[in-house]
Amino acid sequence: MLERDMGIWSGLFATPIKLAEYLLAKCLSLGLLSLAAAFAIHLPVGGWPPAPIYFCLGVLLTSCFFTLIGIVASLPSRSINGFLIRSQAYSLVFVFPVLGFLNVFDMPLYWLLPTYGSLLLMSGSLHPLSHGEGGYAIAILIVWIVMAGFLAIRLLSATVRYADGGRRHEQI
Predict the structure, then answer these.
(1) Which of 112, 132, 110 is nearest to 121 (CA)?
(2) Rounded to an integer, what distance in angstroms lies between the CA atom of residue 156 and that of residue 171?
(3) Which end of the chain is more exposed for a tag (fewer CB within 10 A), N or C?
(4) C-alpha–C-alpha distance, residues 152 and 154, integer Å
């Protein structure tokens, strides 16, 4: 939203960058920052995770998913307050698996949400995961990332106007 409001998109989308490449760059840059923060928090408290690959994938994939949800929430928003309210509303349903993880309230439906996969992968910082658990968690996150990515591309492409055969983009 801030990039759009500051006019960065008009210069950025005048280049041959594709919308999917823009979203991938956003996901990777914010994912690496999230990973650095996760290790900065985890290492002093819990040491090196027993399953560092699962832990890293959990942080990176979760960051990617919520980056895409944030982009989806920001596109129709016209103010920071509107974005904050919309992003909380969009993300609320994804918090429910935390209740099961904390043994407050558990439902089998949680297995369908990406945050259940996130919690499984990041619990690799406490104990090793089976390959079945790790594979399921990665798969469910990837499915949700693909769905959020398609939605973000669709909304982003509706927000920018293509000219010159799709090579030049302008903000609407």
Answers:
(1) 132
(2) 10
(3) C
(4) 5
The gap from C-alpha 52 to its chain's centroid, in whole angstroms, comes to 20
Query: Which pair of structure tokens corresponds to residue 119?
Result: 């919690």
The owner of tokens 């798969």 is 139
Read off φ and ψ for residue 98, nearest 5 degrees.
-65, -35
Work out the number of other CB atoms within 10 angstroms of the CB of residue 146.
Answer: 12
Q: Collect all residues with Cβ–Cβ distance below 8 Å to 123 and sequence separation of at least 6.
A: 101, 129
Over the stretch 38-67, which tens digit does the pLDDT of each residue have?
Answer: 999 989 988 888 888 889 999 999 999 999
Q: Give the gyration radius of the chain's Cα atoms.
A: 18
Q: Which two tokens stand for residue 30?
A: 């914010």
Look up the pTM and report it. Answer: 0.84
Residue range 15-33, pLDDT digits in tens: 777 888 889 999 999 999 9
For residue 48, the 8-state DSSP code is: S
Q: Is 44 exposed, middle or buried (0-12, 13-18, 19+ CB in 10 A)?
A: exposed
